[in-house]
Amino acid sequence: MTGSALSVSLREAVDEVLETMFFVQNEGQAVEDRPIEELVASRVDFEGSPSGMLSLRITLQAAQGMAADFLGQESSELPPGRTTEVVSELANMICGAVLSRVESETTFRLSPPRTTIETGDVLTGCGDAIVCRVQLPDGALSVSFVYHGAGS
Amino acid sequence: MAYRLLIVDDSPAMRAFVRRVIGLSGFDLAACFEASNGQEALELLRGEWVDAILTDINMPHMDGEEFLRRLAADDVFRSIPVIVISTDATHHRKERLLAIGARGYLSKPFLPEVLRAELETTLGVPA
Fold this sequence. Notes:
Order of helices and strands of chain B: EHEHEHEHEH
CATH topology of the domain at 1-11 and 32-58 and 67-88 in chain B: Rossmann fold
Mean pLDDT of chain B: 92
Helix content of chain A: 25-40%
Strand order of the largest sheet of chain B: 2-1-3-4-5
Largest sheet of chain A: 6 strands, antiparallel
Structural class of chain A: alpha+beta
Number of helices of chain A: 3
CATH superfamily of the domain at 1-11 and 32-58 and 67-88 in chain B: Response regulator
CATH architecture of chain A: 3-Layer(aba) Sandwich
Distance between the termini of chain B: 12 Å
CATH class of chain A: Alpha Beta
Helix content of chain B: 40-55%
CATH topology of chain A: Chemotaxis protein chec
Oligomer: heterodimer
Shape of chain B: globular
Strand content of chain A: 25-35%
Number of helices of chain B: 5
Strand content of chain B: 15-25%
CATH superfamily of chain A: CheC-like
CATH class of the domain at 1-11 and 32-58 and 67-88 in chain B: Alpha Beta
Number of strands of chain B: 5
Largest interface: A-B, 29 and 23 residues
Low-confidence stretches of chain B: none
Number of domains of chain A: 1
CATH architecture of the domain at 1-11 and 32-58 and 67-88 in chain B: 3-Layer(aba) Sandwich
């Protein structure tokens, strides 16, 4: 699969998960030069054929808003740790949705997401990853995807 | 008729989401139990009858595949319909899980009305 086809699959998967499960509309490509800020970072590795990883970074305020919408609660009512749990689910679902688009006939296994709260630039990608950057109502999201297909 | 459901998922957030979506969809729910893996679900089923089970696949201690096998091997539990909710929408995975006893398969992301339709079809709820 080409890089541009993967990029399209990643964008489609991100949009589908945001709209269907989080009731959030992608507001376009996130603007560059964001300040250093608090963010939630999550990583999911997948193994088998294909193998690779998905890394996701979302601004803390946006993550809290999405967690509240996902659970039908106010942001101020969320128990400790619930925002990172929801971001883990977000990463898990996007990863599964991308892989199901690009490898519908094979099997893969996702590792449990590893999710932390950090400070940094939310739009930082990693290495040779395909990156999708999204502007959200309360912040920004970036998703990096590294993929080693069966034939690559 | 109102139904008794069991949601099995290691993520408390996902269990809360599924429970919320079932409520929002208008599905007639009498009771909703939760378990964080297959082992916990089997223990719960020894004390509570449910009409259907919604289960994740990737869980610690006892994953969804082993849970399905244990249900299928039990004379009483094998009659409870199980719907798998998974991030994996590949044909291979779906066919394997249906072959070992799942009655329905729902891949994430899904719309509330799709979950309700899957539940109603699995339970044979009249239209």
